[in-house]
Amino acid sequence: MSEAEKTAVVTGVSTGIGRAIAKTLIDAGWRVFGSVRKEKDAAEASAALGANFTPLLFDVTDDAAIRRAAEKVEKALGGRTLDVLINNAGIAVAGPVGYLDLEDLKRQMDINVYGPIRVTQAFLPMLGADHSRRGAPGRIINMSSVAGKMASPFMGPYAMSKHALEAMSESLRRELIKHGIDVIIIGPGAIKTPIWAKADELDVDRYRNTEYFEDLSRMKDMMQAYGDQGLEAEDVGQLALHILTAEKPKTRYPILKNKFAMWTLPNLLPKRMVDKAILKRFGMASRDA
Q1: Which of 43, 85, 182, 187 is at 20 to 30 A from 221, Cα to Cα?
Q2: Does the annotation mark 212 as catalytic?
C-alpha cells in the first residue's frame, strides 16, 4: 500500500449502502477495509470488489472481534492515519411503542448506537487521535436516516436509534475538533436496499389483539413499495465520495427523492400539521376529544 493511497473502513458491506460505498471508493482508487459478519460474505465481497478490498470479520456488537479487526488495519496502515471511518452497519426494528418488546429495543440500540461507538473508539487513534501518526487527520461519516430527525408511527425503535446516533455525532464532532477529525452525518430517505424487503419478516400477528393490527398490516404492505421507489444505493456512494473530496463538507447531508415534500416542508410546518399528514398517509384515524 503506497503512502498516497487513500484508506477507508466501512461497516456493513455485505449488501446495500455499505457495498455501494465500498465499490464507489474502490473505483476512485481507494483501499477499503469492509466489515462483514460471515466468512461466506467476506469471500463474496472480496470476489466482487477486487484486490483493493480487505474484508474485516466482525459484528458491531462484538468488542473482541472489533479489536482484532482494528489490529489488522493498524498493521496495514504501518503508522499512517486512516482517511475515513464510515459507520454504516445497522438494522431496523418496528413495532408500536406501547407494546414493544424491550429486548427488541435493546438489540436495536446495541447495533445502531452502541455499535458505532464501539467501532469509533477502536479506530479513533488511527484517524488521528494519536498525534504520532503520519498524515492528516481523517473523517468519520455516520449513516443516519430521515428517521434521525422525523419519526413515523411504528418505527419508534429505529427512529430512536437514529436520533441517538445524530446526538452522538454532534457531540463527537465538537469533541474531535481537538484532533482535527471531522464528523459528518448522511441522512438517507428510502434507498433501494434489502432492508425494505425485510418488511415481510415483520410479525404483525403478535399485535393481532391490539388496536394497531390493521394499521401495522397496511404499513407492512407500504414498506416494500416505499423502498422500491427510493434512490439507488450508488447515489449514497457518490455522496460519500463527494464528502470525502470536499475541502469543507457540511455537517449533515439528507439524500432522498421528493426532498422538498418529504424533508424540507415537514421540517418547516408545525408538528401538529405534520401529524395529520402522516396519519392520513398511514390511513389512521384520530379519536375525537
Answers
A1: 187
A2: no
